[in-house]
Amino acid sequence: MSSVAFVAIGILTLAAALAAASLSKLIHAALSLAVAFVGVAAFYFLLGAEFVGLVQVFVYVGAVAVLIVFTILLTRRESGSPARFKWTGALVACAIFAGLLVAIFKTKLPAAPAPPLAPLTVKHIGDSLMTSYVWPLQCVGLVLTAALIGAMILVMEEKRP
Amino acid sequence: MTREFLDQIFIHGKQYLLSFTAGAPGWLVQIISSLLNIGALLGVFLTLFALISVLERKILGRIQNRYGPNRVGPFGLLQPAADGIKLLIKEDVVPLRADKVVHFLAPLMMVFPAILALGVIPYGRNMTAFAIDGGILFFFAVGSTAELAVFMAGWGSNNKFSMLGAMRAIAQMVSYELPLIITVLPVVMIVGSLSPDAIVAAQGGYAHGLIPRWFVFTPWGGTAFILFFVSGFVESNRTPFDVPEGESEIVAGHMTEYSGFKYATFFMAEYFGMFAISGLAVTLFLGGWQAPFGLLQFIPSYVWFFAKLSAILFVFIWIRGTLPRTRVDQVMNFAWKFMLPMAFTCILAAAVWHYQSHGLIGWFGSFAVIAAAYFVLSRVLDTGKKFAPRTYRFAE
Q1: Within this chain, do residues A64 and A1 fall inside the same structural domain, yes or no?
Q2: Whole-angstrom distance between the N-terminal and C-terminal Cα of chain B?
Q3: What are the chain B neighbours of A66 within 8 Å (beta carbons)?
Q4: B262 belongs to a structural domain
Q5: Hey, which of A80, B30, B124, B367 would disulfide with B219, CB 3.0 to 4.6 Å?
Q6: Which residues in chain A have their CB less than 8 angstroms from residue B138's CB?
Q7: Which candidate, B75, B84, B256, B85, places its Cα nearest to that of B165?
Q8: DSSP-derived 3-state class of residue B388
Q9: Is B50 part of a structural domain of the chain?
Q10: Same domain, A14 and A70
Q11: Which of A23, A52, A77 is the last residue of a domain?
């Protein structure tokens, strides 16, 4: 059952990602990227990481995809000029993929399937965020606050003398 | 015994239907069980949609001193069927320069999240279609994808008014999502769970044997409820805040180029979104399916849920019939300058209430925090404009 789901979600996610990379219209590419994000969220659900899956949908589809779409809106609409194949882009993508492969093969996987973990609840996540991971949390908070204030200053009306 | 049976009658019905699949493999039973849940959910809410669409026009008619629909069927109750047939047989107009695929997918993308969000709401004891631990988070996660659908509608139509309407709608939805989610936080913090069932369970019982322990009766809960309700109004693009489709300014916003059944789908998505937000408000603040008095607990839980839901929907319609449309800048200013600080104050007030062990001192302390924040905000945001009856001058 779960392997069937794995294959189905995998095909959908990969197809969406491929479409995002190859479609000529930017807006279609952005929308397929959103589908790929949903596919990744479905993987998290399949692995039992409910919370991460929901946050994936929340942040990536609800915020990042909308942000991308808005940026496309603010750029000029290209008039049907076919996008050229860019070697530098392919090179960067291959390099990242190779790096990921190395990381995956260097990771020692446990020989026996891991014992089933206790169901991870939001309470546990909150506890560990407030105890062992409190400094990263504070740093992220600081960065986000700075970004918010920066955005406010950028759009603030200047007082006329 | 009969009371218990009546309360769980739908659960028993589902068990009975599932008993026919006795010999089937586990995954098939699981799929059939999910399909039964989905079917029940869609059946109930499509009926409610049909009912509310005619009731809304009736109530609006009453408010505006006219009859409303009264020709089709008894009291005009068959009006939705007539409307549905009319919209189905209408020509499907697609603009020549439209992005066809995106244009077609937008109404569907709009209605899916609303239906998904309806799944996590507990409609009665043991009556949650999709009970997961992070139900509240699920609700907002799927709700946030609606922005993408609005954008698709605006962009796919290739029309200036559509695009303007979509940008307005997205700006408004993004702004009001913040107070909407932050007003939920105090409830989640007090209950200590993101599961809607746990939140309803936490509101059971009666203080002094009389007053129900619903969160709306605490100062922070009452304030959060009002803020949540207003934000929900904006999220579902209903009339005082239907700036994105202000027909006097931008035709119909992102729905300008939609006609026939596609328009009906948008209409349905708006109503389903309204049901979802109202259902969540009932769950979070009005005690879900809990009875308001201990004596009335013999009435089945789902009756209470739908009674509360109908009350909220009535207020939705009432406000639509009473208030004029706000201006774009007013809506946005209100979100960032008033709603957001008040929502944060609710968290603080809830903390005061919690650490005074939910007692009377905590109640008044919490009230003081809310009142102080409201007073300060009203002073700071006062623009100093003098409002007086408008004077008119006519040609002599």
Answers
A1: yes
A2: 80
A3: 147-148, 151, 170, 174
A4: yes
A5: B367
A6: 54
A7: B256
A8: coil
A9: no
A10: yes
A11: A77
**Considering the domain boundaries, does residue B148 fall inside one?**
yes
Residues B73-129: pLDDT tens digits? 787 788 888 888 888 888 888 888 877 888 888 888 888 888 888 888 888 787 787
Residue A82 falls within a domain, yes or no? no
CA nearest A65 in B: which residue? B148
Tell me how far apart the alpha carbons of residues B196 and B137 are, in angstroms, rounded to a whole number.
10
Question: Is B292 inside a domain boundary?
Answer: yes
Q: Evaluate whether B6 touches B300 at the Cβ level (below 8 Å).
A: yes
Report the DSSP beta bridge partners of residue B122. B128
Question: Under a CB-based contact definition with an 8 Å cutoff, are residues B326 and B240 in contact?
Answer: yes
Which residues constitute the domain of residue B263?
Answer: 91-378
For the CA atoms of chain B, what is the radius of gyration?
23
A-B contacts (CB, under 8 Å): 66
Q: Return d(Cα B309, Cα B316) in angstroms, integer.
A: 11
Tell me which chain A residues have a C-beta less than 8 angstroms from the C-beta of B99.
Answer: 25, 27
**Total domains in the fold of chain A:** 2
Q: What residue in A sits closest to B28 (Cα-Cα)?
A: A1
Query: Which residue in the set A62, A119, A122 is minimally distant from B194, CB to CB?
Result: A122
Q: pLDDT confidence of B164, banded at 50, 70, 90?
A: confident
B4 at A interface, C-beta within 8 A: no
Question: Count of domains in chain B?
Answer: 1
Examine the predicted complex and report whether its ipTM is higher than 0.90: no
Q: Which of A122, A123, A125, A127 to mutate to test the interface with B (most CBs of B within 10 A)?
A: A122
- Domain assignment of residue A100, yes or no: no
Domain region containing A6: 1-77
Whether A123 sits inside 8 A of B167 (CB atoms) is no
| A28 in contact with B, Cβ within 8 Å | yes
Report if residue A116 sits inside a domain. no
